[in-house]
Amino acid sequence: MLTLVGSILVSLSSGTNYVYSAYSPQLGARLHLSHTQLNVIGLAGNLGVYSSSPIWGRVVDSKGNRIPLIGACTCLFFGYLGIKRIYDDGAGDTVSFLHLAVLIVCTFMTGVAGSAGLAAAMNTTAKSFPDSARGTTTGLVLSGFGLSAFFFATIASVAFPGDISALLLVLAIGTAIPMLLGLVIVRQVPLPPASSRLGVEGGLRGREEYQPIPSGDAALFISDNDSHDALLNPISAHGQEVSNYHVPEASTAVELVQDRSVSRGSRATRSVSRGRHDGPNIYGKQLWLTPDFHLLFTITALLSGTGLMYINNVGSISQALYAKGNPDYDQLESARWQAAQVSTLSICNFAGRVLIGLIADFTRIRLRLPRVYCFCLVSALFVVSQVYAINVEDVTHLWKATVLLGLAYGGLFGICPTIIIDWFGLAHLSENWGYVSLSPLLGGNLFSLMFGRNLDAHASDDDSSTHSPLSLIKRAALPNDHQCFDGRECYVSSLYVTVAACLFALVLSAWAGIRDQRKTAETKRELVWDAEE
Q1: Residue 85: other Cβ atoms inside 10 A
Q2: Can you give the pTM of this predicted structure?
Q3: How many other C-beta atoms can be found within 10 angstroms of the C-beta atom of residue 324?
Q4: How confident is the model at residue 444 (pLDDT cuts 50, 70, 90)?
Q5: CATH topology of domain 2-190+290-518
Q6: Where along the chain do the CATH 1.20.1250.20 domains lie?
């Protein structure tokens, strides 16, 4: 439990990229940045998170938590201090290339740090709890990642209301300290020997009764050394195969892999896993050649791209809705609406990660269905959130779309690690998760840049209009020269694109569940057939 609490604290300090919307409009106003430039800065943070994930994953799998946690502490501290320095110095009429480059580098550093901290926390938790509780516990750790924005934004707003410089200082110090604490208390707790067994007539019993099978037809079953030999007989002393699989006597974890180069009646062992792993052991080049990986990658790219687009721009969305037809624009009131969206998004992101873990374990243990079916629920929530956002015309109703999006986004990243374990195994979880985490770079870049260009195009149209309310800037002190005044029309065309993307992800999610269930049923039938032989 101490490891779990420590992992949650580390995760809580790793998700600060989600707080970007709490200060990005003010950053843009002070430095005279366009919406496209603000999205590029925000995407630098996302790039840092997802591009470094495979690297940190491999480091955690091979070297442990120490290096990632030290790196996270350093990058978070200097990254946010760098952003604070640029913000405090301000800019002239236009931001210089040097200032923009420093902002991008500093935001990238915070993203790299978030990836390092999350990899350390998630890997430790996944390997310290049994399969029956893994969805719930990893969901709790990932929920801290989602709650990060609310946690730090609330601290800054209570202690330093309206002070963006103070918020950045809180982020610099408040995220670095938990990483140092994690060096002391985030430690992997070894699990006791597995007690579940394989039976001939009963098939798979205990918590291993259902085991998802990846496209490589690899299945890993946990059994004691005295497993029923009627089903898994080793090769005889005369070299004749008396079973389709070979099980070594000295291992409690056996990876059963069918060799496609031989017939059904003469399969041989292709690889044997030493140690304890709750699933197949697919990684590296083999992972990239597995169709299941590309299916998971595509679903995650579409849904995470939608989520990142909304998260990075929810502050601008609330300002556009608040500014429409409002002659009494108040910066402080606008900032409150903006902060409310960020806090709501963060809380629901947290809740989504916790709930999806419980739902995933219920689906697996009680309903005897693949956990991947949870993707259908997540995709449906994304669709509903985007449809609702399209129809919001008043900032007072935007929170409803934010709630749905937050739950969906949290659910997506709460279920992904568990699916990776089910499909590809636990031994290389962090590395495999890192490769899957590259997918938001594709969707996030595409959708976020599309959104920023859309906002800038409408703001430009406003500038050229003779009836534009740009006079309000002087009367009401609007925060940004690039402000759009058309409300939902500033961005609604971008939401139509994300609705289509999420609907496609929903179809793929249903196909993934059906495909996984069919493969599992087929493998069970083959095991029974082999036993009867």
Answers
A1: 13
A2: 0.66
A3: 18
A4: confident
A5: Growth Hormone; Chain: A; (1.20.1250)
A6: 2-190+290-518
